[in-house]
Amino acid sequence: MKDTRDQHLLARLQAGEHSALRDLAETYGSKIYQLAFRYLRNKEDAEEVMQDVLLKVHRKVGAFRGDAALSSWIYRITFNTAMSRLRTAQYQHTQKKEVSMTPDGDEAAAAPYDVADWTGLADEQVLRSELRHRLARAIQALPAIYRAPVLLRDIQGMSTEEASAVLRVKDQTLKSRLHRGRLILRAQLADFAGGLTLHHATA
Asked: What crossing angle do the helices spanning 160-167 and 70-87 adopt, rounded to 10°?
């Protein structure tokens, strides 16, 4: 762990300093929230995950051995907590209810994920919104082993090293799973991409 500030914060947390928890929240609170929001697309859920993660870090910091960066450890906890919430029946039901109540054209609610790599497939707002909606469903349908790398790299924008640290796998393993996940997504979206090609060809 190379970050001196993180080392100092970790030492204070492990020493049980009351002010360390406040500093932890100030340093990582917004980052945890942003990461959770990327997955959950709901402010209240992201807020709850953030609070949950901060408490988990505080409770488990004594067992942290420093074999990875403090930030990577925190992001791994955030990822696991958000994924756990995402899998709950209650959350799935809430999301389906919100989507069913969303008026057509409300891209913000209908598009759980915003992936820069895919937006180039369509310039039109309506097609882009539909693509994101299809992509969201395709990502949710991925096996967990492939879904996690896609979420971390393509949705969150983490580097290979950061994503590998979060998932506790080797860089090459992460790359292999990411490649496989992307291939599955491309195959599932092939008919839609073909439709876009036809659309542009006749425009």
From this structure: 70
Length of the chain: 203
Q: How far apart are CA 123 and CA 142, in angstroms?
A: 26
- Distance, CA of 164 to CA of 160 (rounded, Å): 6
Q: Which of 149, 7, 16, 29 is nearest to 78 (CA)?
A: 29
Tokens of 166: 């979060």
In angstroms, the Cα distances linking 126 to 39, 86, 153, 159 are 23, 27, 26, 31
pLDDT in tens, 95-126: 555 444 444 434 333 344 544 444 443 344 55
| Terminal-residue alpha carbon distance, the chain | 54
- Those residues with Cβ within 8 angstroms of residue 90's Cβ, 6 or more apart along the chain or in another chain: none
Q: The tokens of 162 are what? A: 């950061």
Tell me which residue has tokens 């060809």: 201
pLDDT in tens, 44-98: 889 999 999 999 998 899 888 877 788 888 988 988 888 888 776 455 555 555 4
Give the residue among 78, 117, 176 at the shortest CA–CA distance from 164.
Answer: 176
User: Tokens standing for 21?
Assistant: 């928890």
Tokens of 203: 């425009």
Give CA angle at 75 (33, 128), nearest 5°: 60
